[in-house]
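SAMPLE LOG
Freezer: B-3
Tube label: C17
Construct: single chain, 320 aa
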Amino acid sequence: MNRGAHGLSAVVVGGTGSLGRHICAALLRAGASQVTAVARHQGQVAPGVRLFRADVLAGSDRALDHLTAHSDIVVNAAGAGWRGTPEQMVRAHTVLVERLLRLVPPHTRLVHLGSVHEYGAISPRDAADEHHPERPSTPYGRTKLTGTRAVLASAAEGRADAVVLRITNVCGPDAPAASFLGSLIEQLRRLPPGRPLDLTVTPDMRDFIDIRDVADAVVRAATAPVAGLVINVGRGEVHAVPAVAEMLTVAAGFPRRRVRMQVAAMPGSPGGNGAWTKVDVRRARALLGWSHTVCLQDSLRDQWTAAAPPDGGRPGARTH
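STRUCTURE (predicted):
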Protein backbone atom coordinates (compact mmCIF):
# COMPACT_ATOMS: atom_id res chain seq x y z
CA MET A 1 0.00 0.00 0.00
CA ASN A 2 1.27 3.46 -0.86
CA ARG A 3 1.55 5.57 2.30
CA GLY A 4 2.95 8.70 0.64
CA ALA A 5 -0.11 10.81 1.48
CA HIS A 6 0.06 10.09 5.21
CA GLY A 7 -1.03 13.12 7.23
CA LEU A 8 -1.73 15.29 4.18
CA SER A 9 -4.98 17.00 3.26
CA ALA A 10 -6.37 16.53 -0.23
CA VAL A 11 -9.06 18.04 -2.45
CA VAL A 12 -10.44 16.12 -5.42
CA VAL A 13 -12.28 18.27 -7.96
CA GLY A 14 -14.88 16.06 -9.59
CA GLY A 15 -14.72 13.87 -6.49
CA THR A 16 -18.18 12.36 -6.96
CA GLY A 17 -17.43 11.18 -10.51
CA SER A 18 -16.38 7.66 -11.43
CA LEU A 19 -12.65 8.34 -11.20
CA GLY A 20 -12.99 10.91 -8.45
CA ARG A 21 -14.68 8.52 -6.02
CA HIS A 22 -11.91 5.94 -6.40
CA ILE A 23 -9.21 8.60 -6.04
CA CYS A 24 -10.79 9.89 -2.82
CA ALA A 25 -10.93 6.37 -1.39
CA ALA A 26 -7.32 5.67 -2.43
CA LEU A 27 -6.09 8.85 -0.75
CA LEU A 28 -7.80 7.85 2.48
CA ARG A 29 -6.24 4.38 2.32
CA ALA A 30 -2.86 6.04 1.77
CA GLY A 31 -3.22 7.87 5.08
CA ALA A 32 -4.47 11.33 4.05
CA SER A 33 -5.70 13.20 7.12
CA GLN A 34 -8.63 14.76 5.28
CA VAL A 35 -10.07 14.20 1.81
CA THR A 36 -12.64 16.59 0.35
CA ALA A 37 -14.61 15.84 -2.80
CA VAL A 38 -15.59 19.03 -4.65
CA ALA A 39 -18.64 18.72 -6.91
CA ARG A 40 -21.40 20.92 -8.26
CA HIS A 41 -24.15 18.52 -7.26
CA GLN A 42 -24.92 16.09 -4.48
CA GLY A 43 -23.29 12.72 -5.11
CA GLN A 44 -21.90 9.60 -3.50
CA VAL A 45 -18.57 9.75 -1.72
CA ALA A 46 -16.54 7.08 0.02
CA PRO A 47 -16.96 6.72 3.80
CA GLY A 48 -14.76 9.27 5.53
CA VAL A 49 -14.71 11.69 2.58
CA ARG A 50 -16.13 15.16 3.05
CA LEU A 51 -18.38 16.52 0.28
CA PHE A 52 -17.99 20.20 -0.57
CA ARG A 53 -20.55 21.47 -3.09
CA ALA A 54 -19.17 24.24 -5.29
CA ASP A 55 -18.94 25.22 -8.94
CA VAL A 56 -15.29 25.87 -9.75
CA LEU A 57 -16.42 27.80 -12.83
CA ALA A 58 -18.75 30.09 -10.90
CA GLY A 59 -16.12 32.73 -10.18
CA SER A 60 -15.07 33.96 -6.76
CA ASP A 61 -15.94 31.57 -3.94
CA ARG A 62 -14.14 32.40 -0.70
CA ALA A 63 -14.84 29.02 0.86
CA LEU A 64 -13.43 27.21 -2.17
CA ASP A 65 -10.44 29.58 -2.28
CA HIS A 66 -9.72 28.84 1.37
CA LEU A 67 -10.12 25.10 0.87
CA THR A 68 -7.64 24.86 -2.01
CA ALA A 69 -5.18 27.31 -0.45
CA HIS A 70 -4.93 25.24 2.74
CA SER A 71 -4.72 21.78 1.18
CA ASP A 72 -1.53 19.86 0.47
CA ILE A 73 -2.87 18.10 -2.65
CA VAL A 74 -5.43 19.07 -5.30
CA VAL A 75 -6.48 16.52 -7.90
CA ASN A 76 -8.36 17.61 -11.00
CA ALA A 77 -10.59 14.66 -11.91
CA ALA A 78 -13.33 16.80 -13.44
CA GLY A 79 -14.20 16.57 -17.11
CA ALA A 80 -16.84 16.22 -19.79
CA GLY A 81 -17.31 12.73 -21.20
CA TRP A 82 -17.68 11.67 -24.82
CA ARG A 83 -21.38 12.51 -24.71
CA GLY A 84 -20.67 16.13 -23.84
CA THR A 85 -21.05 18.94 -26.35
CA PRO A 86 -17.98 20.78 -27.71
CA GLU A 87 -18.96 23.78 -25.56
CA GLN A 88 -19.14 21.61 -22.44
CA MET A 89 -15.75 20.14 -23.27
CA VAL A 90 -14.18 23.59 -23.60
CA ARG A 91 -15.58 24.66 -20.23
CA ALA A 92 -14.63 21.45 -18.42
CA HIS A 93 -11.22 20.89 -19.98
CA THR A 94 -9.86 24.41 -20.52
CA VAL A 95 -11.81 27.08 -18.62
CA LEU A 96 -12.01 25.00 -15.44
CA VAL A 97 -8.28 24.22 -15.63
CA GLU A 98 -7.43 27.91 -15.98
CA ARG A 99 -9.60 28.67 -12.94
CA LEU A 100 -7.89 25.94 -10.91
CA LEU A 101 -4.45 27.24 -11.84
CA ARG A 102 -5.46 30.59 -10.38
CA LEU A 103 -6.86 28.97 -7.22
CA VAL A 104 -4.14 26.46 -6.34
CA PRO A 105 -1.09 28.08 -4.72
CA PRO A 106 2.44 27.18 -5.88
CA HIS A 107 3.18 25.16 -2.71
CA THR A 108 0.23 22.78 -3.26
CA ARG A 109 0.73 19.70 -5.43
CA LEU A 110 -1.70 19.67 -8.36
CA VAL A 111 -2.33 16.33 -10.10
CA HIS A 112 -4.14 16.88 -13.40
CA LEU A 113 -5.76 13.97 -15.23
CA GLY A 114 -5.14 14.09 -18.97
CA SER A 115 -6.08 11.61 -21.68
CA VAL A 116 -4.38 9.33 -24.19
CA HIS A 117 -6.60 11.00 -26.80
CA GLU A 118 -4.31 14.02 -26.55
CA TYR A 119 -1.81 12.07 -28.67
CA GLY A 120 -4.23 11.45 -31.52
CA ALA A 121 -3.22 8.67 -33.92
CA ILE A 122 -0.59 6.19 -32.75
CA SER A 123 1.08 3.99 -35.36
CA PRO A 124 0.26 0.27 -35.17
CA ARG A 125 2.75 -1.73 -33.09
CA ASP A 126 4.07 1.53 -31.62
CA ALA A 127 3.85 2.52 -27.95
CA ALA A 128 3.50 6.26 -27.44
CA ASP A 129 5.89 7.63 -24.86
CA GLU A 130 5.56 11.08 -23.36
CA HIS A 131 7.48 12.65 -26.27
CA HIS A 132 5.10 11.29 -28.89
CA PRO A 133 3.67 13.99 -31.21
CA GLU A 134 0.37 15.42 -30.00
CA ARG A 135 -2.12 15.57 -32.87
CA PRO A 136 -5.59 15.02 -31.39
CA SER A 137 -8.34 14.53 -33.95
CA THR A 138 -11.44 14.95 -31.77
CA PRO A 139 -12.89 17.86 -29.78
CA TYR A 140 -12.38 15.77 -26.64
CA GLY A 141 -8.68 15.22 -27.35
CA ARG A 142 -8.08 18.81 -28.44
CA THR A 143 -9.68 20.37 -25.37
CA LYS A 144 -7.93 17.94 -23.03
CA LEU A 145 -4.59 18.82 -24.64
CA THR A 146 -5.27 22.54 -24.19
CA GLY A 147 -5.80 21.95 -20.47
CA THR A 148 -2.67 19.82 -20.17
CA ARG A 149 -0.54 22.44 -21.90
CA ALA A 150 -1.85 25.14 -19.56
CA VAL A 151 -0.86 23.03 -16.54
CA LEU A 152 2.62 22.34 -17.94
CA ALA A 153 3.18 26.00 -18.82
CA SER A 154 2.21 27.05 -15.30
CA ALA A 155 4.63 24.50 -13.84
CA ALA A 156 7.43 25.64 -16.16
CA GLU A 157 6.93 29.23 -15.00
CA GLY A 158 7.03 28.23 -11.33
CA ARG A 159 3.38 29.11 -10.74
CA ALA A 160 2.31 25.52 -10.01
CA ASP A 161 3.73 22.35 -8.49
CA ALA A 162 1.90 20.22 -11.02
CA VAL A 163 2.07 16.87 -12.80
CA VAL A 164 -0.13 15.48 -15.59
CA LEU A 165 -1.18 11.83 -15.73
CA ARG A 166 -2.17 10.87 -19.27
CA ILE A 167 -4.66 8.02 -18.87
CA THR A 168 -5.67 5.34 -21.36
CA ASN A 169 -9.10 3.64 -21.68
CA VAL A 170 -10.54 3.15 -18.20
CA CYS A 171 -12.44 0.04 -17.13
CA GLY A 172 -13.40 -1.53 -13.81
CA PRO A 173 -16.05 -0.83 -11.16
CA ASP A 174 -17.88 2.47 -11.69
CA ALA A 175 -15.95 3.22 -14.90
CA PRO A 176 -17.67 5.90 -17.04
CA ALA A 177 -21.05 4.80 -18.34
CA ALA A 178 -20.44 6.78 -21.55
CA SER A 179 -17.50 4.55 -22.51
CA PHE A 180 -17.76 1.62 -24.94
CA LEU A 181 -17.76 -0.90 -22.09
CA GLY A 182 -20.26 1.13 -20.08
CA SER A 183 -22.58 1.28 -23.07
CA LEU A 184 -22.25 -2.48 -23.64
CA ILE A 185 -23.11 -3.20 -20.01
CA GLU A 186 -26.18 -0.99 -20.30
CA GLN A 187 -27.32 -2.90 -23.39
CA LEU A 188 -26.76 -6.28 -21.70
CA ARG A 189 -28.58 -5.21 -18.53
CA ARG A 190 -31.62 -4.12 -20.56
CA LEU A 191 -31.69 -7.17 -22.82
CA PRO A 192 -34.97 -9.09 -22.42
CA PRO A 193 -34.57 -12.74 -21.32
CA GLY A 194 -33.73 -15.03 -24.21
CA ARG A 195 -33.34 -12.28 -26.78
CA PRO A 196 -30.00 -11.99 -28.63
CA LEU A 197 -28.01 -8.78 -28.84
CA ASP A 198 -26.79 -7.63 -32.25
CA LEU A 199 -23.57 -5.76 -31.54
CA THR A 200 -21.32 -3.87 -33.95
CA VAL A 201 -17.81 -3.17 -32.68
CA THR A 202 -14.68 -1.68 -34.19
CA PRO A 203 -11.50 -3.73 -34.70
CA ASP A 204 -9.61 -1.16 -32.59
CA MET A 205 -6.67 -2.26 -30.46
CA ARG A 206 -6.81 -0.38 -27.17
CA ASP A 207 -4.82 -0.05 -23.98
CA PHE A 208 -7.26 -0.65 -21.09
CA ILE A 209 -6.47 0.21 -17.47
CA ASP A 210 -8.45 -0.50 -14.31
CA ILE A 211 -9.88 2.51 -12.52
CA ARG A 212 -8.33 1.38 -9.22
CA ASP A 213 -4.88 1.28 -10.80
CA VAL A 214 -5.43 4.85 -12.00
CA ALA A 215 -6.33 5.92 -8.46
CA ASP A 216 -3.13 4.32 -7.17
CA ALA A 217 -1.09 6.25 -9.75
CA VAL A 218 -2.72 9.50 -8.62
CA VAL A 219 -1.79 8.83 -4.98
CA ARG A 220 1.80 8.14 -5.95
CA ALA A 221 1.98 11.26 -8.16
CA ALA A 222 0.62 13.38 -5.31
CA THR A 223 3.95 13.25 -3.46
CA ALA A 224 6.55 12.12 -6.01
CA PRO A 225 9.19 14.66 -7.21
CA VAL A 226 7.74 14.82 -10.72
CA ALA A 227 6.58 18.42 -11.17
CA GLY A 228 6.25 19.70 -14.73
CA LEU A 229 6.01 16.28 -16.35
CA VAL A 230 3.50 14.22 -18.30
CA ILE A 231 3.34 10.58 -17.19
CA ASN A 232 1.46 7.90 -19.09
CA VAL A 233 -0.84 5.68 -17.06
CA GLY A 234 -1.97 2.55 -18.87
CA ARG A 235 -1.46 -1.17 -19.06
CA GLY A 236 1.23 -0.81 -21.73
CA GLU A 237 -0.37 -3.52 -23.83
CA VAL A 238 -3.26 -3.70 -26.27
CA HIS A 239 -6.38 -5.84 -26.51
CA ALA A 240 -8.73 -6.05 -29.49
CA VAL A 241 -12.08 -4.42 -28.77
CA PRO A 242 -14.06 -7.47 -30.04
CA ALA A 243 -12.08 -9.73 -27.68
CA VAL A 244 -12.69 -7.40 -24.75
CA ALA A 245 -16.41 -7.27 -25.56
CA GLU A 246 -16.47 -11.06 -25.53
CA MET A 247 -14.59 -11.15 -22.21
CA LEU A 248 -17.23 -8.87 -20.72
CA THR A 249 -20.18 -10.92 -21.98
CA VAL A 250 -18.58 -14.09 -20.56
CA ALA A 251 -17.93 -12.35 -17.22
CA ALA A 252 -21.60 -11.31 -17.22
CA GLY A 253 -22.72 -14.91 -17.67
CA PHE A 254 -24.12 -14.55 -21.17
CA PRO A 255 -23.71 -17.51 -23.55
CA ARG A 256 -21.72 -16.51 -26.61
CA ARG A 257 -24.67 -17.31 -28.89
CA ARG A 258 -26.71 -14.49 -27.34
CA VAL A 259 -24.32 -11.76 -28.49
CA ARG A 260 -24.10 -11.68 -32.29
CA MET A 261 -21.02 -9.58 -32.91
CA GLN A 262 -20.15 -7.84 -36.15
CA VAL A 263 -16.76 -6.17 -36.54
CA ALA A 264 -16.70 -3.02 -38.67
CA ALA A 265 -14.06 -0.28 -38.84
CA MET A 266 -15.16 3.31 -38.38
CA PRO A 267 -15.31 5.42 -41.55
CA GLY A 268 -11.91 6.89 -42.33
CA SER A 269 -9.89 4.16 -40.65
CA PRO A 270 -6.68 3.56 -42.62
CA GLY A 271 -7.03 0.47 -44.77
CA GLY A 272 -10.30 -0.36 -43.07
CA ASN A 273 -8.42 -1.27 -39.88
CA GLY A 274 -9.21 0.06 -36.45
CA ALA A 275 -7.26 2.52 -34.37
CA TRP A 276 -4.25 1.48 -32.29
CA THR A 277 -3.92 2.91 -28.78
CA LYS A 278 -0.94 1.82 -26.71
CA VAL A 279 1.33 3.80 -24.40
CA ASP A 280 4.80 3.34 -23.01
CA VAL A 281 4.56 3.25 -19.20
CA ARG A 282 8.26 3.08 -18.33
CA ARG A 283 8.25 6.63 -16.94
CA ALA A 284 5.46 5.73 -14.49
CA ARG A 285 7.44 2.71 -13.31
CA ALA A 286 10.66 4.68 -12.95
CA LEU A 287 9.33 7.85 -11.31
CA LEU A 288 6.24 6.65 -9.44
CA GLY A 289 7.16 3.04 -8.74
CA TRP A 290 3.78 2.25 -10.29
CA SER A 291 2.49 -0.52 -12.51
CA HIS A 292 -0.94 -2.00 -13.04
CA THR A 293 -2.05 -4.75 -10.66
CA VAL A 294 -5.60 -5.67 -11.76
CA CYS A 295 -5.90 -8.20 -14.59
CA LEU A 296 -8.31 -7.29 -17.38
CA GLN A 297 -10.69 -10.21 -16.77
CA ASP A 298 -11.09 -9.24 -13.10
CA SER A 299 -11.58 -5.62 -14.06
CA LEU A 300 -14.37 -6.45 -16.49
CA ARG A 301 -16.07 -8.81 -14.04
CA ASP A 302 -15.99 -6.14 -11.34
CA GLN A 303 -17.33 -3.52 -13.75
CA TRP A 304 -20.30 -5.75 -14.58
CA THR A 305 -20.97 -6.53 -10.92
CA ALA A 306 -20.78 -2.87 -9.87
CA ALA A 307 -23.37 -1.95 -12.50
CA ALA A 308 -25.99 -4.30 -11.06
CA PRO A 309 -29.37 -2.68 -10.26
CA PRO A 310 -30.08 -1.99 -6.55
CA ASP A 311 -32.24 -5.13 -6.25
CA GLY A 312 -29.39 -7.25 -7.60
CA GLY A 313 -31.45 -8.54 -10.50
CA ARG A 314 -29.79 -9.80 -13.67
CA PRO A 315 -32.71 -10.34 -16.04
CA GLY A 316 -30.59 -10.14 -19.16
CA ALA A 317 -28.32 -13.00 -18.16
CA ARG A 318 -31.08 -15.58 -18.16
CA THR A 319 -30.86 -17.95 -21.10
CA HIS A 320 -34.51 -18.94 -21.43
